[in-house]
Write a structure and sequence with these properties.
single chain, five-stranded antiparallel sheet, alpha+beta
């Protein structure tokens, strides 16, 4: 299974430079190192609703402060192979580290995730019960079987549409 995860904002989001958001996946006690993604904003920006804030699998540095605000968003995820990690594991997590001081309530209310596979993508919202605030701009989303279910939904949709 190959997948990537994108963090998107539901509300306008102001990022004051220097700002960053890092994402990576883990399964059990194993970090999936190829999933590491970091988005650094070297200039202050306002992201409009439904803009990508960050994504797994790549690193991006935003320097261009002359673009219209509506054009700012992080690049798309790079999907990575997680087959050896996801199958049969209960402890699948998305780790978020950020210069923003987010609470689990804010993350659940103001953001959502886009799970991307080779066959398509699915939007999911996070229940606050799934999110653990570990302090200092760090949060963990306990994905459990959510990723596997999402990937199956994407596969079912692809089969239905063909």
């Amino acid at each position: 299974m190959h997948l990537g995860i994108e963090l998107l904002t539901l509300a306008p989001l102001t990022l004051i430079a220097p700002a960053y958001v890092e994402l990576f996946l883990s399964a059990g006690k194993h970090v999936i190192s190829t999933s590491f993604g970091k988005d650094e904003y070297a200039c202050s920006v306002v992201l409009v609703p439904h803009s990508r804030v960050a994504a797994t699998g790549r690193k991006c540095l935003f320097l261009n402060h002359q673009r219209p605000a509506s054009l700012h968003q992080a690049g798309p995820t790079e999907i990575v192979d997680v087959a050896n990690f996801v199958s049969g594991r209960e402890g699948f997590h998305l780790f978020i580290s950020s210069s923003m001081s987010l609470t689990s309530a804010q993350l659940a209310r103001d953001f959502y995730l886009n799970i991307v596979t080779e066959k398509g993508s699915e939007i999911i919202t996070c229940d606050q019960k799934m999110i653990e605030h570990t302090g200092n701009g760090r949060l963990v989303i306990h994905m459990g079987s959510l990723v596997e279910k999402s990937c199956l939904n994407i596969a079912d949709t692809t089969l239905t549409n063909n």
